[in-house]
Design a protein that fits this description.
By secondary structure, the protein is of the alpha/beta class. The chain has 2 domains: 134 residues, Rossmann fold, CATH 3.40.50.2300; 62 residues, Orthogonal Bundle (Arc Repressor Mutant, subunit A).
């Protein structure tokens, strides 16, 4: 039996995932977490085999949360389930220690297969993500400005180009407004862009939005 902890801040999504997994003989949902802090606390308790985790939750989340969980529980398989279809998000999540990456759109048809794969110790990623991982190891990839961003900067960048204000990002990531503003300044400098509009155009051009 594969025991699953679902970590997602949306009740409707958690209930939907449980319905998908209902009746699957070898899979059982044994717990739920509603934010980053709750996820970390329940991960420390153990009693499950796979963490099915949203990439964006209140509190500590994303790559930071993946890294901390893997530091404390290196053998725990993490399957990321996210709205982000872009391969760049997947590459960062996999590098941080996630064993698989699945979009919410494809969860209905691929979730069971993905859970079984990561539970058995195998990765679950798309061909596109595998290609991005290979390309990111090549020198040419470093020419793309967004690859120079730290994981936190990339997270802030993603929220900025999605239309969120600095205050909203600060609340979402549990950071101060000053810290987010500093990240924004560094992002602009590293990517050599002058305005938010420039960042959005870049994100669209490179399929990061």
């Amino acid at each position: 039996m594969i025991r699953i902890l679902i970590a997602d801040d949306h009740t409707i999504m958690r209930e939907g995932l449980k319905r998908i997994l209902e009746g699957i003989e070898d899979i059982e949902v044994v717990g739920e977490a509603i934010d980053g802090h709750d996820t970390l606390a329940k991960a420390r308790l153990g009693n499950f085999d796979v963490l099915l985790m949203d990439l964006s939750m209140p509190g500590r989340s994303g790559v930071d949360l993946i890294r901390q969980i893997k530091d404390e529980m290196p053998k725990l398989p993490i399957l990321i389930l996210t709205m982000h279809e872009e391969e760049q998000y997947a590459v960062r999540a996999i590098r941080a220690g996630a064993r698989g990456y699945l979009t919410k759109e494809s969860a209905g048809t691929q979730l069971v297969t993905a859970l079984r794969k990561v539970a058995s110790g195998r990765p679950y990623i798309s061909i596109e993500v595998a290609e991005q991982l290979a390309m990111s190891a090549m020198p040419a990839d470093s020419d793309l400005p967004h690859t120079s961003l730290s994981d936190r900067e990339f997270e802030v960048f993603s929220h900025l180009v999605a239309g969120k204000s600095i205050t909203e990002i600060a609340e979402l990531l549990h950071l101060s407004v000053k810290t987010v503003s500093t990240h924004k300044t560094r992002i602009m400098l590293k990517m050599e862009r002058n305005t938010l509009s420039d960042l959005v155009q870049y994100a669209i051009a490179h399929k990061l939005l």
